[in-house]
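Re: that chain you flagged

S.,

Sorry for the slow reply, it's been a week of failed gels. I finally had a moment to sit down with the sequence you sent. For the record, here it is as I used it:
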Amino acid sequence: MPVLVNRIKQLVDGGEPRQAWPQSWHWNWRTKMDHISGLLAFRTFALTCEGKVQGLMQINTAKNLCRLPAQAGKHLAYVDYVETAPWNRVTVVGQPRFGGVGVVMVRAAIEVSRDEGFHGRIGLHSLPQSESFYADVCGMSDLGLDGTKENLRYFEMTSEQSTAFSS
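Prediction finished late last night. Pasting the structure tokens below so you have them in one place:
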């Protein structure tokens, strides 16, 4: 948190609008974990290196269905939250300590989907600052803004896309 708080202070002092702030700045992972404690449909992941958490993710494997017409009604693993540590984000520190954390997390979500028998299918709603990552780096399908989920853009990955991404 200190790295993130310092960056937000810099942005405020520089007169930057709130849209320029890291959009996950208010997430409290301890509270998120408390809400799902003991629920078997949820999986949580922490990517660590050199004794520090580099990324966190929460996946829901229950009752999530694909929206893409070609796979409508099939189950998928839904990524509730995924976040890279502030010191790994170019928008926060300029020179990230580790790269590829988001890619590793998406690969882990694909593996959960495969383990559940969902053939690598995943879905998620993206914060605006991450949309290009899911579309361009991950090759996920953009299904547009979802008015039922804070007007966030919804992305899905088919089994074919997950195979291409994992290769």
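What I noticed first: The beta strands are 42-49, 52-60, 77-84, 122-126, 141-146, 152-157.

Talk soon,
D.
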